[in-house]
# Entry
Amino acid sequence: MAVKVSSEWLNACSGCEISILNIGETILDLIPDKIELVHIPALVDSKYYGQLGDGTKLELPKATVGLISGGVRTEEHAEVVREMRDKVDILVALGTCATDGGIPAQANMWKNEDVLKKIFGDCPTHEPAGHPTEIVPPYTDSVLAVDEVAKVDIYIPGCPPHPDWIADALLALVEGKTEWALPERSVCDTCPVIREKKSAGGAAIKRPLENYTYDPDEPIEKMRCIMEQGYLCLGAVTRAGCAGKSGVPRCIQARQACRGCFGPIRRGAKPMVDMMGALSSIGQDAKSLVDRRALLNRFVGAHKNLRPLPQRGKK
Amino acid sequence: MGKMIQIQPVTRIEGHSRVVVELDDGGNVSDARFHVFALRGFEMFCQGRPVEEMPRIVNRICGICPWNHHLASVKATDAVFGVTPPPAAVKLRRLAQHMAYIPDKLLHFYFLAAPDFVLGPDCDPSTRNVIGIAKANPELARKVVRMRQSAAMMLEEWLGKVIHPVAAVTGGFSRPLLEKEREKFLEGYKEQLEFAKFTIAFAREEVFPKYTEAVESLGVIKTGFIGTVTEDGTHDIYDGKLRLMKPDGSYDDFSYEQYTDHIGEHIEAWTYPKMPFAKKWASGEFSLDLDEPKGIYRSNALARINVCDKIGTPEAQKELDLFREKYGRPTQLTLLYHWARLIELVNNCETVIQLLEDPEITSREIRSDVQVKAGRGVGCVEAPRGTLIHDYTADENGLISSVNLIVGTTHNQAPINMSVKKAAQDLIHGGEYDQGVLNRIEMAIRAYDP
Ligand code: SF4
Ligand code: SF4
Ligand code: SF4
# Structure
């Protein structure tokens, strides 16, 4: 019997769903024999209000596994989360928006009314206007991770999560397991660059305005750690896994620094605090980091990690 | 008061939306609207971020077209700091742009659109999807999955992230292309080109002819079009000038910075996205009226194919000639978006091969010096769904002080609304409709996406 899977996207970008498709041919071995997709708006025509659109209550089909990508930004998103929780046995938060708020939770640095005022009131292509209020679902108080609305059983972080892990978790669930988690290791633990545990770039953290030093003809094992070159790399406080089951962390492969898209190493850890420690341990001055608060919380703005700062009397 | 039909979520499109059709007492359509209920607020939370970080933040606007946002953004950041990337870096960006289009086109045509055409718009909704396609034609389905996967994986092998990329950086590119990668890709993309040619021939000969009537009527409206062309009017998805074409085929060309002279945005109270419109037409008025629309233009593949004088590669040009012979220029037939996409697919494969054969593509000169300064910059590229406009202003510390974004889907908000209403009015009479009819209304939306 195929396991029924239901999937929804909330304050999301579709990247998590594309990552599901990037599982590739393995997915054809799973669907439809082992997995039956009962609801997934990206691929399947299943509707909230019935196929004839005459229902009055938002309804999702029953399923064993529910996948949710995206955080919660509107009351309607919250309703979908609650409805899915009611209808599934195992709820999976897919992607860092769902697990930790993701990039959209950067908005938590502002009050809702300021966001709406900025978007509709201060724009070069139209006259200032009020924000939409008819039918559109209102904002929740802040951008929330899914587990701030309902209990989540399994977390698959990543922006987007690597297809290897999505397949791995789905296979585990198909086999009847009810638990799955990425190991608690850091991106640095899986990064092959040279580390000497001290900064070669001085105490002040440089902005990445030039390419990092490396020889393109040499393997990545010959490149010096980006943080030790004097730039910010969030590998030390970010969960490993972005390269899938093997390989070099994805940004490092492109000779770029990690920005933390897999979220904290342990659920509940605070990258902001941990990173300040990691920086000073190699002799760098964390205070020299430009735009520190937003940068160190880039993917983890939910769970009250980011909130509006008190007004500082300037307008 | 008559009846309200809610189609939610609209399925097999990217992103969350809903259609509401209102019927009057006689069961005829009195109104129909396409609502989008998401507003993440990038324009707000990008404020204060370092300029050079923007390409790594705004790619999250869309997981289907992250490369396009990444590149429009990096071009805007170049312009803010007044830096010109070395020629090889521009070629690498262009290469990545064309490479990224390919898996997207395959996804759209075979997985999202094809179920309506291959299985038919009225078939059982539980099989009207990619799984149904896989059952109906398992060999082709496997081939599509494999081709799409291999296109995505070549990009991943080279630059790590395919979704939410990081390799385009202010002033250039972070990593060169190595000779051994070049050779391997060349082979891979020759295979992609063959498959692209197969796909367009299959669509042209076996798929669209069965639906001639739908093509000629479904969601057809009369609008203008926007797209990017080079100085001599050639179709281009990475760089050039913007061309805004009126329904009669006449047009204005303008540079990115001039977009505010030509494009305004209209706000409706019932949907979060704004509706861009051509503000030099119809004395700056905006109207969704089906008989007399004002200021409405469309973006995405059909728009680009309509506004260009020619397309830069031989096989794609042959396809463009065939298309124009049949439908003229500009054509308003909404379902032809699907066809136009495939002409671009052929062009993408050919352009990738041309770039890979360019000796400069493996150059190591890939980044220019960048100095932080205050400034404004507008960066544009074409995403599959349409023209992306990223307009950034920064203070003297190189922190963003203001952002305006007009993205592919946004351009099409107004025309999608019109197509939905048109389809609903044509298809629902006297309160009679079934799921197949409602699916046809959704087909009018799918044409625009992605
Ligand atoms: S986690 Fe990343 S890929 Fe997934 S929806 Fe959020 S922004 Fe998109
Ligand atoms: S800090 Fe960055 S470059 Fe250095 S080891 Fe960690 S992930 Fe690799
Ligand atoms: S290196 Fe860091 S930011 Fe880049 S993909 Fe991996 S976890 Fe995400």
About this structure: Chain B is about 45% helix and 15% strand. Chain B touches chain A through 107 residues (CB under 8 Å). The first strand of chain B starts at residue 3 and ends at 7. Residues 1-38+431-450 of chain B form one domain.
